[in-house]
Amino acid sequence: MAYETLIVEIEDDVALIRLNRPDAMNALNSKLLEELGDALAGAESNDKVRCIVLTGSDKAFAAGADIKEMSEKSFVEVFTSDLFGAGTETMLRCRKPIIAAVAGYALGGGCELAMMCDFIIAADNAKFGQPEINLGVVAGIGGTQRLTRLVGKSKSMDMHLTGRFMDAAEAERSGLISRVVPAAKLVPEAMAAARKIAEKSALATMAVKEAVNRSYETTLREGLLFERRLFHALFATEDQKEGMNAFLEKRQPQFRDK
Ligand code: HXC
């Protein structure tokens, strides 16, 4: 599928989706969000894809929502069209793991898009920020909620109120990202992580996503019960027998998602 704002490649069970608006630092306009929704839905339904990597360019993962496109919109327009609401739903519904590979700027909606992925691997030149305050608005696709859960209230308030950027080292220290790698190795490292995930049983990777995401939505007691029941349920799968037998027989497991 040829897109105007994305480049999609499928290789070794992994879909690599690259945001591609080089003239606008990959700013998120309605076309890009529509195409991203389409590419994610395509990856989700494609049996050849077991994991997804979302990346941008060396300079920018995405510098936020497209300010040119939205600057003149009225309240009625953004409210009735649910600006950026619908466009991001597909990502939240995706059951296959999504890794954000971030180099350069991940600002505003760009930082929020990265946080919507399952985890973030960043290049050492990455810069994260929620600078919406400088435009007279606030984050609109989860920044105040997800950043606060990831880095805590104090740092989240600091980022949202001052609009300052966080470098990769601070982002790793704060728990926003899972690892930092040299910029030149970003996509290879993210693809290697994705290939490793692609080797697992998809039943187990889906269960991991459901259980970890549930921790944001529920009490600890309910979350623990949810996890335990998923753990129990996986004993009904062939992949559990295969995984445990392979360990005991000192060989690599051959998972079949059954
Ligand atoms: C539209 C953008 C853009 C954006 C950059 N560009 N960010 N266009 N929307 N968010 C365009 C610039 O206008 C410019 O186009 C080109 O990309 C290169 O950017 P420069 O500013 O010349 O580059 P540089 O000096 O290196 O600065 C990079 C930057 C800066 C720090 C990333 O561009 C910047 O501060 N951008 C805005 C970041 C921001 O405020 N993001 C939050 C948006 S609100 P021309 O045509 O002039 O060459 C938001 C709300 C989220 O995200 C709510 C839901 C999604």
From TrEMBL:
It holds the Pfam family ECH_1. The keyword Disulfide bond does not apply. It catalyses: a 4-saturated-(3S)-3-hydroxyacyl-CoA = a (3E)-enoyl-CoA + H2O; a (3S)-3-hydroxyacyl-CoA = a (2E)-enoyl-CoA + H2O. One of its GO terms (molecular function) is 3-hydroxyacyl-CoA dehydratase activity. It is an enzyme of class 4 (lyase). The keyword Lyase applies. SUPFAM superfamilies: ClpP/crotonase. Keywords: Fatty acid metabolism, Lipid metabolism, Lyase. Its EC number is 4.2.1.17. One of its GO terms (biological process) is fatty acid beta-oxidation. Belongs to the enoyl-CoA hydratase/isomerase family. Could possibly oxidize fatty acids using specific components. This is enoyl-CoA hydratase. It comes from Albidovulum aquaemixtae. The gene is echA8_3.
